[in-house]
TrEMBL record:
Domain of life, per lineage: Bacteria
Annotated SMART domains: DnaJ (SM00271)
A Pfam family that the UniProt record links to this protein: DnaJ
Name of this protein: DnaJ-like protein
Keyword annotations: Chaperone
InterPro entries: DnaJ-related_N, DnaJ_domain, J_dom_sf
The keyword Chaperone appears for this protein: yes
Chaperone keyword on record: yes
Domain J: 142-197
SUPFAM superfamilies named among the record's database cross-references: Chaperone J-domain
PROSITE patterns with a match to the protein in the record: DNAJ_2
Amino acid sequence: MRNPLIPDILAILKEHSQGISEFDLLKALKARHAMLSQLAEDSNLLLFRQHFLIMNALYQLQTSLWQEEQLALEISGTRISLVYGKQHPSSSSNTNVSDSADAKLAAYYSDWDEYVKTDKEDVEQLLQSFYQGIASVDERKDALKVLALHSDFMNDKEAIKRQYRKLARDAHPDHGGDPERFISLRQAYECLMHSFV
């Protein structure tokens, strides 16, 4: 199904040659389409549906602009912009994790069933998962501090193991170490190792 927001989104993007945030794009679209404020009674579900419609339109537009005009539309979490004279992201020679994440996002937002089947409870679960994810990042940062590691090591499993073993050996109660320090080190280690499961 062709998204009815596409013509207005294209017009707004042309007005903002340096790009635009999704928030500002939504504000501009609401001024043109009152129906965007009437998609749901629940505020979280309303925001999900507004976001979904915009992203669906953007991914449809990204595909058609490239196929028909060889014009790239860059979609990121902070900025949406038309880019002239640029190679299409999927034809880049350095395919990486980001490319596969972009493809998954495009597939998700292109599937109208996702829009239809997502209800208030689903959105609440998504938000809860998001908030838990933030908390776990903070907990992991605290755990790195306990192990005297820089945040660059958050995803380095072997470095975390080495540092834990080094510090735990000195803090182990059987070797005259501080039992509380040893437990703190173990808790930090478990917190960080949990993220690799």
